[in-house]
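Long-time lurker. I teach an intro course on protein structure, and each term I like to show students one example going from raw sequence to a predicted 3D structure in token notation. This year I'd like something fresh instead of my usual example. Would anyone be willing to generate the tokens for the chain below so I can use it in lecture? Attribution to the forum is fine with me.
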Amino acid sequence: IGAGKWKTVPPPYSEPEWQAWDDTMSPWDAEANLTDIWCGFVPRSYADNWPNVAQFIVFTVFRSTGTTVNFAVQGIVGTVLAAVNMHFMTWIFPHGARGSTCADSADGCVPGTLVYLDENYARYGEFVCMMDVLLVLLLFLVSKGSRNSIMFGMSWHVTWMMSFMNPAIGVQVFIDSESRWWNWTLTDFFVVEVTTVLGAAIAIIATLVPKAKVQNLQSMYDQAMAVNYAIAQIWSEAVQYLGGSRRTAVRFQIETRIDAIDALASEVHENSVGAWWETLDLGNAGRKRRLLDRFDTNAMDIRDLLYVVKTCILAETFDDNAAEHSIFWNKLQHAVGELTISTSDLMWLCLETFEDGEMNEEEIDRIDEQLSRVAVSRASLVESFHKAEPSISEELSEEQTFIFALACWSRKNSDFAKNVVESARSGKLHHSGSFMWGFLQGVFRTWDIKEIMQVDHLKCALRNWLSIVACFLIGYYGQGSIFSRYNYVMAMTLTLLFVKEGSHHVEYEQCAHRLLGVALGKSLPIIVDSILDTLPCDSQIGLVVQIFAVWAYVSTWCFLYYSSEKWSYVSCLIGGVGIFQL
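-- Reply from a regular --
Happy to contribute to a lecture. Here you go:
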């Protein structure tokens, strides 16, 4: 039997036979017509929710594996929380609001009135469900959870609860009561959980393409190399510049390099967080991440020293104290150069050791030997300094300040290397934090009362809550004109656009981008469908064109999502909202 919708059609004077349903037949409804059957490879509830896989992939895949894993977990958590609430509500009201209009008083009801299958729902179900909607939305918004978790959780919550409270839908009931555990797996909220996990798996696998270089751990290592190279270049160029006899444009190059280091801080943190999600801090990969995180932290901590270097370089004039500068620097130049080179070599050796996440005895001994060379170089610099100018001099203030900054940089890097060596020898390097403890810390941060009770955060939560609730009530009670009752579209759409900044200032440009993204995401697929409708559905050409159209639509907007800084979020919404309709 083929997949999809089928009907039993009784030909004249013969046995009924099954035929694949098409638009020329009467409307297909397996629940209302016993002649209509579903013969798909998967249950019909799975087929109806299959677009969720594609939509979740669009909203989840990002520039790196770790970030994608992070987004996937956030989306799954939000979806599961909304589904847990639905399982609870189904336990209270097994049929939900499902019912029918009374047609005959002989059935023991008033004709024209709504008769619910669940007697408890008839008594207090609407009130309980409405309170559940309001409370769950409020809990999502006041929490300090991630935006993805809140967005997915609220969108599915209002969608499922609106259907749950719709007498025409309620909870889909199946006749075979002996297999209720199986029927439970066919509910929409369970199916969405399954398709969400499937979409997350595909999204993560998509980032594991060989040689794509989108893994955060590799990016973290490459970035550590780049930061170390930049810092080594700054010190080397600064030493050469101060060894000169006049001001040159090199000082501005050094200034630019130092300012660029500051801009890397956010990228370093992003890669560190993403690498944690890639590795979960387990095995060699987890140790490599922890070592690189310590290296990056140490590198970023010396930014204050680099600002001192920048001030010294820009303030040095060489004119007022040319003779004193030349004498002073000539006595220290060799020691300064030796310390700069030995300290840079120490950091390069550490990075080389961190590459595989393991530190054997040979590698530890090499670091110890290099530490000894750095100590000798630092002692030589101190000796040369006291011979050159044992007292603080105003005429040589820039040179002396630079020497102190260089010695401090060398000392911090030596301390870092010693701590790493001690951790490796004591075995602490192999001890990662407990994943469960990390999970509990995330829960504690999500419900941190001090953070939740901040006035700006509460104002933001209240504004979003009132607007979403208003849309839900309009969708639930609104009837006539442009409104149809039990319509979740308005509330669900608004949950995707809520402002999570926690500030009382509204970013109008960002809100306009959200509105533009949803509007185009809803309208562009209609245009695409209208073009595809001109092609015959049962032809190979029509199938190929439809596949190409969907591919082109998603590829175009995902490309803009990943590459454009200004239109990234707009493109994400257009692709994510539109793919569900296509």
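Some talking points for your students: The CA atoms of residues 20 and 460 lie 52 Å apart. The radius of gyration is 33 Å.
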